[in-house]
Amino acid sequence: MGVNLQKGQRVDLSKEGESLSKLMVGLGWDPAEPEHGKKGIFGGMFSKPVQEIDIDASVLMLNENGKLVTKENVVYYGKLKSTCGSVIHSGDNRTGGGDGDDEEIMVDLSKVPTNISKLVFVVNIYDCANRHQDFGMVHNAFIRIVNTSNKQELIKYNLTDNYSGRTSLITGEIYRNNNGWKFAAIGEASTDISLSEIVKKYML
User: Fold this and answer.
1) If you ran DSSP here, which 8-state letter would residue 198 be given?
2) Number of domains making up the chain
3) Which residues face 125 on adjacent strands?
């Protein structure tokens, strides 16, 4: 059974005193439930259909100063693998439908270059301005970490804050700590409308 974290909590990524290496970071969400109880013109009850929301998960690979040295250090649906091979994205899920993880990111901490100190996991709503969508229309968002060697879930963080009006979200981060790595539950939202806007904040 994994550890359920609250916003702001941090935990060591270790097993029996040894640092873990290969991890799966799963991110999931569901569109908000339809509105029930409204009467149709013939007196019947109807529901507003669930609106599909295309949420994109990305990873920012930052240096010790929390900055992106190059845009090549961003892994997302348009660049599914980092140059060093330490981060591999599963690909784009455009609806958020179904149970379990909607997007998965494989991380091999042993391959992360020494000049990278932090992996930041970000989600944003694709084309949110034109579609008039925000994270207030999303339920059951989470980030979790699984040890790929035994498929054991180590950590799960359910994002339970009210994110209405927000269109991007830093879910969590994995960062170097002495000779190992830690995970931090972040849950910070913003009104950035694209990954490009988010990236600009971290560029040198």
Assistant:
1) H
2) 1
3) 55
Query: Measured between alpha carbons, how far is 201 from 197 in angstroms, rounded to an integer?
Result: 7
Residue 133: inside a domain: yes
Does residue 41 belong to any structural domain of this protein?
no
Say which residue, 36 or 202, is predicted with more confidence.
202
Phi, psi of 122 (to 5 degrees): -120, 145
The model's confidence at residue 25, banded by pLDDT at 50, 70 and 90, is very high
The answer to whether position 38 is within a domain reads: no
Residue 70 lies inside a defined structural domain of this protein: yes
| Per-position DSSP letters for 104-150, written without gaps between them | EEEEEGGGS-TT--EEEEEEEETTHHHHT--GGGEEEEEEEEEETTT
| pLDDT for 69 beyond 70 | yes
Q: Is the confidence at residue 50, as pLDDT, over 50?
A: yes
Helix (H) or strand (E) holding 196: helix 195-202
Domain of residue 107 covers: 3-33+48-199
Spell out the residues 6+ positions from residue 198 whose beta carbon is closer than 8 angstroms to its own: 58, 60, 122, 124, 168, 190, 192
CATH number reported for the structural domain that contains residue 15 in this entry: 2.60.60.30
Q: Tell me: the pLDDT tens digits for 120-165? A: 999 999 999 999 999 999 989 999 999 998 899 999 999 999 999 9
